[in-house]
Specification:
Layout: E1 4-8, H1 12-24, E2 28-32, H2 35-44, E3 49-53, H3 61-71, E4 76-81, H4 86-94, E5 99-102, H5 107-131, E6 143-145, E7 155-157, H6 159-167, H7 177-193
Parallel strand pairs: 1-2, 1-3, 3-4, 4-5
Antiparallel strand pairs: 6-7
Helix pairs in contact: 2-3
């Protein structure tokens, strides 16, 4: 599936040439000629990455960056600027920019940086998936419980104990319809054997 990139720049020549370059590299590209239009597109569509100019009329690239991170904290944002200074670079990175490049930038360098941003994004998604997997023993069905930062050794708990410790909720035991039917059949079979 093609990665989706939004390019935001108020210089038409930069916008169109960068758009054609990214499409040529196999990305699905949307273009916005100002920050307001860029933010509107971010609200309506999903993008993997945003490339935005820093200095634009109206809303700046930092405004686009802030909005992008509010809409999707995992989106990668690359800031391009012809007016680079240390303060703006630090501010962009503090706000969550993935990278910061000076115009004019070498296309190969831009492709390399975009590739790294997307690779980091994919790794972060994988880590999030792995963190959400609950380790359960395939034999006894106990759950691994690690008390984060407590200094205690991890222990294996029955599912109801694990849920109780994690949530503070009590567990009531009962039968689902299938297990109830199975239990009734076992009782009936045991009576027939007597």
């Amino acid at each position: 599936m093609k990665k989706k990139i939004l390019i935001v720049d108020d210089e038409e020549l930069v916008l169109t040439s960068l758009g054609m370059e990214m499409e040529g590299e196999g990305y699905e590209v949307s273009l916005a000629a100002d920050g307001k239009t860029g933010i509107a597109l971010l609200r309506r569509n999903y993008y993997n990455l945003v490339i935005t100019d820093l200095m634009m009329e109206g809303l700046s690239g930092l405004d686009v960056l802030k909005a992008a991170k509010e809409i999707d904290p995992e989106i990668a944002v690359v800031i391009l600027t012809g007016y680079g200074d240390v303060a703006s670079a630090i501010e962009a990175l503090r706000l969550g920019a993935s990278d910061y490049l000076l115009k004019p930038c070498d296309c190969n360098e831009l492709h390399l940086r975009i590739g790294k941003c997307l690779e980091q994004q994919n790794l972060a998604k994988k880590i999030k998936i792995y963190e959400s997997i609950l380790p359960v023993c395939s034999e006894c069905k106990k759950v691994l419980h690690e008390s984060a930062g407590s200094g205690q050794m991890p222990e294996w708990l029955a599912m109801d104990q694990f849920i109780s410790r994690k949530t503070g909720l009590g567990i009531s035991h009962g039968y689902c319809p299938d297990c109830f039917k199975e239990a009734m059949q076992e009782i009936a079979q045991a009576k027939q054997k007597k």
